[in-house]
Every structure is written in C-alpha cells, then in structure tokens.
C-alpha cells in the first residue's frame, strides 16, 4: 500500500523490537499448539521449558529466536536477519502490558473480540477463531513479511499486529508509511483445494478476498458506530482502497475522498493447500486530516472510542463472519456479497476514460473479479470491457491495463 501523505512527516524507527506470541485468555493453549507446530520435537506436555535458548526456527531469510518473557534479548535493527519472539507463560497482567506492550493492550483487544463476535462462528472453527492467536510487536519490519516467513510452518489462522513498521509493504512495489494510532494487521488463512466439479478454483476465490476484507472494514466501522454518525462515510475504491468522504475545501463540491487505508492479499498454493495472507493498514487516529478519527470528529461533539484494539477487533470479527459465509457458499462466488460491496463503493455509474481513449461507464464486478464497464459510444453496440488493475490505485488511470472486450 502506498504512503498516504509526505513520508518525511513520519519516519519509522530503525530498531526492531521483540514480538510476543499471545492467545485469547479463554483459549491460552493455542500458544502451545503453535509452538508444537514449529518445534514438534518438544513432544507432549508443556512446550515452554525453563530456558528457550535452543528454540530457534530458521528459514531461508531469517532466524527466529524464542525466549520466555523476562529472558534478556539482544538489540536488533532492520538489517538484522535474526528476530526475537517472547513467550509469556500466561495472559499478561495490566502491569506487564504497561511494561511490554505500552502502545497496545491485548486484554482490551481480546475483550473487544468477545464483544463483536458471533457465537455461532465458534462451532465452525476447525482450529481456533480469527484473533485467538496473536503475534504482536511494537516495532516490526512488516506484519505481512513476518507471517510470510512462517507461512507453511504455522497453523492458521494467525493474526500479526504491530504499532509501527519499518518496511510496511503494499501492492506491487508500493510501501506503506505507518502512523501512530494506525491499524497494521495481517492474518493467515488456509484453505484446502477441493477436487470436486462444483468447487471454485483457487484463483477464482483468491481474487475476491480483497473485496471481502473491504466489506469487513466497513462492517467493523459500523459496529463501532452503530448509529452511523460517521461510518456511512467510509467508502471503498476499487480494488483495494479504503477511503473517507470528507468535507471538501473546494467550494465547487461538497465532499472529497481521501484514502485512509488499503488492503494487500498474497497467496501460495502447494500440495493442494492454499495459504493466504491478508494485510490491511488503516489510519485510525492519525494523520489529523485523513483518518477515522478525523472522519468521526468532524460532525460530533462526542468522539467515539476509536482505540486501535477495538477497531481491529471489530474488523476481524466482521471478516470472520464474512469469510465463513463465503467458504460455506463458495459455489456462488462473490454474488451474495456483490450488492453489499457496491453499496459502499464510489463507482456506481461512474464514467472513466481508459488509456485506449475509450470512455466507459462502470457497472460492477464480474464473476472473475474484474471491473465491468460498458462503452458510452453507441458504435460499440452491446459490448462490455472488463478491466484488471496493475500495481496502481484506481485513481491512476494507467492502472487499468488488461482489457477484455465482449
């Protein structure tokens, strides 16, 4: 995801801090199950020994050193190939949160998950629920990259959260500049490839995950703001942008769109298993002119509780519902969600001029996940043109690179 404002205004720190492997207090054994997947030689019983100096997970790019919370850890910088993960023996106390996670409260996050979740989903989870397994770091290189290193070794779902990133990644070659008070989250998903005639191919459903998570962002905001004092002004810009509808400084128009977030989806298919990492950056409290707080505070004297922990939990709970429904009805593809997506996007009947100089009107999303348009010229009859973006955002018209006429 590209930077939202001048990156000189928000220089990320260079020191990488240890991450904590946490779990929902009511499902704390998830931590042990994750460690057993990484270190199966530990066998049964409690995995965490008195000293964890021999617990090192090595991949082709990094070495991950696991330490019991309280053990000394070395200082790391962004160029270091080693990373450190701390293992609390039990949920953090308020005092430990102040010491080890001063910018993020796991207890508030897990409590908010319970508040926003549907209990029906608990019976559908094959391992544990989205958010129950949490990898949190105050400063990391990238939440997306951290999960990518572990992708095949870790069970799913795992959520990676950070308060700051030194190398936040976006679509293609774009970077994401982190601001204090942002949601920086990635979540792993794992789906078996079904060998049935009715099952959708992996490519067919992977393309829709960015749209499903976009819907979850809007639904999460509305869970925070059920009266919709400001959440109805959270809009979607195809294919991956989250925008806010702000009062315009231009007297010729009432509102203007400002990007406040974006989504990235990466996948890997191996041995009939699809591993997916969904990443999302969302400006919640900063910057002052392009964030949820700016959107909410403009028209209200009573600003909502926009703590990063609560907004993140609301969005993850919404995505869990949407993802479960999508998988249960995968033969229908994106069709059951299309109206919900289009009700919050900014492209209804919008006209754009393509790089081919053809002026078209946007109509919707195809069953393959492309943007469907129809030419305005009557000379082209009943043809339609389906568009696929490259690494650029929709507002960069050169991003519409693949044209399929019918």
TrEMBL record:
Boundaries of every BPL/LPL catalytic domain copy: 119-327
Database matches in PROSITE patterns: BPL_LPL_CATALYTIC
Pfam families, A to Z: BPL_LplA_LipB (PF03099)
Gene3D superfamilies recorded: Bira Bifunctional Protein, Domain 2
Name the record gives this protein: BPL/LPL catalytic domain-containing protein
GO molecular function, one term: biotin--[biotin carboxyl-carrier protein] ligase activity
Any GO CC annotation of this UniProt entry: cytoplasm
């Amino acid at each position: 995801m590209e930077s939202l404002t001048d990156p000189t205004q928000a220089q990320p720190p260079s020191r990488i801090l240890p991450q904590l492997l946490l779990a929902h207090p009511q499902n704390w054994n998830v931590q042990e199950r994750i460690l057993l997947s990484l270190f199966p030689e530990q066998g049964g019983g409690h995995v965490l020994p008195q000293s964890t100096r021999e617990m090192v997970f090595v991949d082709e790019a990094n070495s991950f050193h696991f330490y019991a919370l309280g053990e000394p850890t070395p200082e790391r910088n962004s160029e270091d190939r080693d990373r450190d993960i701390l293992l609390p023996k039990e949920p953090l106390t308020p005092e430990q949160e102040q010491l080890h996670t001063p910018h993020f409260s796991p207890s508030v996050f897990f409590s908010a998950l319970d508040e926003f979740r549907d209990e029906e989903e608990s019976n559908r989870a094959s391992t544990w629920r989205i958010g129950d397994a949490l990898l949190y770091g105050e400063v990391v290189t990238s939440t997306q990259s951290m999960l990518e290193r572990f992708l095949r070794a870790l069970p799913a779902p795992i959520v990676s959260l950070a308060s700051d990133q030194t190398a936040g990644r976006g679509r293609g070659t774009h970077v994401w500049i982190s601001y204090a008070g942002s949601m920086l989250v990635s979540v792993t998903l794992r789906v078996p490839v079904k060998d049935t005639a009715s099952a959708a191919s992996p490519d067919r459903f992977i393309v829709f995950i960015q749209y499903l998570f976009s819907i979850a962002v809007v639904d999460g905001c509305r869970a925070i703001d059920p009266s919709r004092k400001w959440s109805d002004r959270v809009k979607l810009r195809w294919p991956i942008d989250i925008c806010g509808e702000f009062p315009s400084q231009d007297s010729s128009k009432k509102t203007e769109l400002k990007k406040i977030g974006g989504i990235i989806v990466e996948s890997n298919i191996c041995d009939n298993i699809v591993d997916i990492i969904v990443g999302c950056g969302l400006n919640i409290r900063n910057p002052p002119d392009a964030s949820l707080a700016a959107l909410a505070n403009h028209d209200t004297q009573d600003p909502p509780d926009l703590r990063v922990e609560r907004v993140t939990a609301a969005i993850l709970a919404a995505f869990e519902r949407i993802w479960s429904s999508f998988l249960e009805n995968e033969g229908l593809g994106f069709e059951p969600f299309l109206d919900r997506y289009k009700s919050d996007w900014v492209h209804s009947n919008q006209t754009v001029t393509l790089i081919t100089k053809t002026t078209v009107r946007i109509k919707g999303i195809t069953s393959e996940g492309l943007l469907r348009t129809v030419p305005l010229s009557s000379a082209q009859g009943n043809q339609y043109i389906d568009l696929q973006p490259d690494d650029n955002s929709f507002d960069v018209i050169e991003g519409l690179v693949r044209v399929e006429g019918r």
